[in-house]
Amino acid sequence: MGHHQTKLDGEKPREYDFSLAVLPFENFSNNPDVGHSMSQLIADELINRKVFKIQDKKETQHILLASKVDLDRLDDISLARNFAQLLGVDAVMLGSVPEFSYQHGLREDPTVGLRVQLIRAHDGLVLWHGSQALAGSGYWQRQSAVYVAQDAVTRLVDSLVQAAEPDWLPPKAVTEKTANRVPLGLLFKG
Question: Which CATH number fits domain 19-169: 2.60.40.3360, 3.40.50.10610, 3.40.50.2000, 3.10.129.10?
Answer without folding.
Answer: 3.40.50.10610
